[in-house]
């Protein structure tokens, strides 16, 4: 019979590395030589298992609900969520109109177009909850938390581009308002086209420079609107 070179190397590694090997003892504790050939795959599996263990996170649960049954926990969590959403909606209805007046007054006193003031300040107020929640989830550095953070930001983007846009277009149509938003609309379309291109080219891995490019679209859109309105006379 014969053995291959790989099997010979595996046998020598078994002899040299097995701590139970002793020439003076008649008993030998043998290990399958093929295990050394597959050691790299085993190490990868161990690393993946460790990553999965590290990626597991404990669900956040209020202290007063930890001793309750899972069904009761879910019921009370949903009730609290409903209460907070109702309170938040009421606060939005109460303060939205005064907030618009404040932004308009800031623009008039600073001699700046109201659009630029609202473009900078309004998103910080309206999307602050999504940003804070996404930041807190991202700090946990787990797959589940990162997925939740990105899902919340994606949901906010979808909401702004569907529901909020529909309300705005409905107001323009039913109130018969004059259309003076061509430059702003072109800026929004430009940003969305760039985002679609970035996502289409990178479906699995997003790096720091992707975030830098996406973040730079915010001031670029302002410059784009200013250029269209002041140099091309587009309203």
List the helices and strands and how they pair.
Blueprint: H1 5-17, H2 34-37, H3 39-55, H4 70-109, H5 114-126, H6 128-139, H7 143-161, H8 163-174, H9 182-201, H10 208-231
Helix pairs in contact: 4-5, 6-7, 7-8, 9-10
Write a structural description.
This protein has ten helices and no strands. The protein has 235 residues and is mostly helical. Helix 7 runs parallel beside helix 8.
Low-confidence stretches: 23-30
Helical content class: over 70%
Number of extended strands: 0
Name the overall outline.
Answer: flat
The largest pleated sheet is described as: none
Structural class assignment: mainly alpha
Give the end-to-end Cα distance, rounded to a whole number of Å.
Answer: 88 Å
Q: Could you tell me the strand content as a percent range?
A: under 5%
Mean pLDDT: 77
By DSSP (H or I, 4+ residues per run), the number of helices equals: 10
Element-level helix/strand string: HHHHHHHHHH
| Rg estimate, integer Å | 30 Å
Summarize this structure as a short list of keywords or feature phrases.
flat; mainly alpha; 0% strand; single chain; 10 helices
Q: Could you provide a short overview of the structure?
A:
The chain has helices at residues 5-17, 34-37, 39-55, 70-109, 114-126, 128-139, 143-161, 163-174, 182-201, 208-231. With 235 residues, it is mostly helical. The chain is flat, with a radius of gyration of 30 Å.
């Amino acid at each position: 019979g014969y053995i291959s070179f790989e099997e010979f190397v595996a046998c020598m590694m078994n002899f040299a590395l097995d701590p139970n090997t002793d020439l003076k003892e008649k008993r030998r504790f043998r290990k399958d030589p093929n295990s050394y050939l597959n050691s790299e795959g085993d190490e990868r599996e161990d690393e993946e298992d460790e990553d999965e263990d590290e990626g597991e996170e404990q669900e956040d649960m209020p202290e007063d609900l930890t001793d309750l049954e899972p069904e009761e926990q879910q019921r009370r969590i949903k009730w609290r969520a409903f209460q907070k959403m109702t309170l938040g909606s009421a606060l939005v209805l109460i303060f939205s109109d005064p907030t618009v007046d404040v932004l308009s007054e800031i623009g008039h006193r600073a001699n700046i177009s109201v659009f630029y003031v609202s473009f900078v300040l309004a998103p910080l107020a309206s999307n602050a909850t999504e940003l804070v929640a996404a930041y807190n989830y991202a700090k946990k550095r787990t797959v589940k938390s990162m997925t939740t953070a990105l899902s919340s930001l994606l949901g906010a983007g979808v909401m702004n581009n569907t529901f909020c846009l529909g309300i705005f277009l409905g107001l323009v149509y039913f109130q018969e308002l004059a259309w003076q938003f061509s430059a702003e609309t072109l800026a929004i379309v430009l940003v969305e086209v760039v985002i679609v291109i970035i996502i289409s080219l990178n479906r699995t891995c997003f790096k720091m420079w992707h975030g830098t490019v996406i973040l730079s679209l915010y001031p670029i859109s302002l410059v784009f609107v200013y250029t269209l309105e002041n140099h091309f006379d587009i309203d």
